[in-house]
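Internal ticket - ligand job 335, FE2/S2 (inorganic) cluster:
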Amino acid sequence: MKHRITIQPKGLVFEADEDESILDAAAKVGIKMLKSCDNGICEVCRATLVAGLIDTPQGQFNASDADVNPMLPCVSKAKSELILEQKKVLAPGEIPLQHLAFQVKDITEQSGDVFIVELLAPAGKHPDFHAGQYLELLIDDNAYPFTIASAPGGREIQLHIGADKDHTANQSILTSLRSAPTVRARLPRGDVWLKPNKIEDNLHDPLIFIVAGTGFSQAKAMIEEQFKHQHSAIYLYWINRDGEGFYSELAQQWADDNKLHYRAMTPESPDCEFYTNETVESLIEQQFPTLNNLHVVICGGPNFVYSVLDGLESKGIKQSQTMSDVYAYMPRPEK
Ligand code: FES
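stdout (structure tokens):
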């Protein structure tokens, strides 16, 4: 008989048979709980039973029993639906947080007041993250989030920092990076990344990126990672107020090399060569015969993301088909 198990505070849910340990059942679905001895001695796996009934080598215990906790998932079996608490558990694919001191290797200015910052991790340390995640620069007791613009795999990390007159905080951060040889950072953060099973389930589904400004950095990392797998046809729509905003030539190079489909758009500047008075959702509607198999990543600020989402929904694309960092830090405004 199977029982549902929830691990708080992350709300991870899985099922366990009555004859397998809770720790083994979690591992089967990719949930990593701390463990060492795996036989009830070291207590590394210790958790708190919040609700339910468990079977242990010492007998059966309810959450209300005085001496039930700490419970040890490596030698405990579920006898009912359970709620456990364990803070250090990792969700499937979740990478533990790392703190690293990066060397500031290079800072180069692009058009549109965008700066490309190259960071280098210490020798022997490879920053571990998923393409699409972000890091936090730790400067003067503050944590500044920036999307990692490079795919994982080496010691180098690239950031794209917009520092026009609307981004004075970023100007200060650049000043700090120029004056110090190293900067501390913690990573990875964020849940916008392409889960391997999701990619494999949808090998031929189009993958669409709709980005604004330096939102291109998140798309860049995810697209470079996708090039390694070549699972999906990739479409990139990059929207800026004017031509200055297209600070990287990479998108056009990828298109010239037939690696993806690219459309540069400036909806507000008729003088610009990229000007179009068509909306991105109407372009997508024309491009694809069916819309319910599309996967869309939207990269930009909250106003941009929600206005793109409104447009996509007006064509029948569901929010569940889309991903954006904004959904986590700024829930959709009430209509
Ligand atoms: S892993 Fe050692 S007690 Fe559970």
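Auto-summary: Residues 35-38, 40-45, 72, 74 surround FE2/S2 (inorganic) cluster (CB under 6 Å). The domain at 2-85 is CATH 3.10.20.30 (Ubiquitin-like (UB roll)).
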